[in-house]
Fold this sequence. Notes:
By secondary structure, this protein is mainly α.
Amino acid sequence: MKNQKMYEPEDKMINLIKDNYDLLQSLGCFGISLGFGDKTVREVCDEQNVDTYTFLSVVNFTINGYKGFDDMDRLSIPTLMQYLQASHTYYLDFELPSIRKELTAALDETDNLARLILRLFDEYAHDIRNHMKYEEKMVFPYVEAMLKGEASDAYDIETYSKHHSQTDLKLRELKSIIIKYLPSDAHHNNRLTATLYDIYNCESWLTLHAEVEEEIFIPVIRRLEQKTQQKDVSLKITNMITQSPDSNEVLSDREKDVIVAVAQGMTNKEIADHLCISTNTVITHRRNIARKLQIHSPAGLTIYAIVNNLVDISSVKL
Length: 318
């Protein structure tokens, strides 16, 4: 039976296992080896290079449904990635093949209904494998690229969230059929009952895995996206300021006037009327400005005008 207490860094790791033996699998997914004696959670995590705060956040969430992470920025994305990727490996390489083997041993494969049960399980295994492989192909590389400072406009975590659907419908159907199908002879009945028990445990584990992704991983990646986007904007502004230190000097007064007008939201025709020049002259000025500053968009010129004190932000048309 699970212990409903909240675990802290100074609790002994062995006590977490005694209270909740199903955490043994979580330890393996975090890369924590057994043999830690009476050391605390913090000591074990530090020795085995696992972020303590992230480990306890996942543990307390999966045991008690606790979501009160007081500082999301403290959650370690590499630690979460390690946990999720190792969970996939365990489920695909061990759990699914193990249950398939149990089913095969418990059923009479010469029986048509038995073959249908195995086919239903294989369909479920195929679906869940595709789901996890999608994450490994699309989601994890996307996150790793962001951690390296490589922003991408081709994907975002919201796309993943919208397609993060439940894949346990076939598993529920499988359980129902097995319960109704249980053979009358004791040998097959016992083996199939044991297999059914493992399927229930498998379903419970998979549900928790999906909840960790929904409630911890996805929000953390949303936060990373926000910080990455903010950093990218700041970098662009810095580049505008630093890429041409003498840009104010090489711009003519008329070109500065054009930039100010652009920042104030004027069209080329409105700029021409405002400066008493032709529209073609405005276009020429803008072409020269783009060549000198390497800034082509009105938004970019507006930022340039603000950071170089050509206009006050209050006069800018946002």
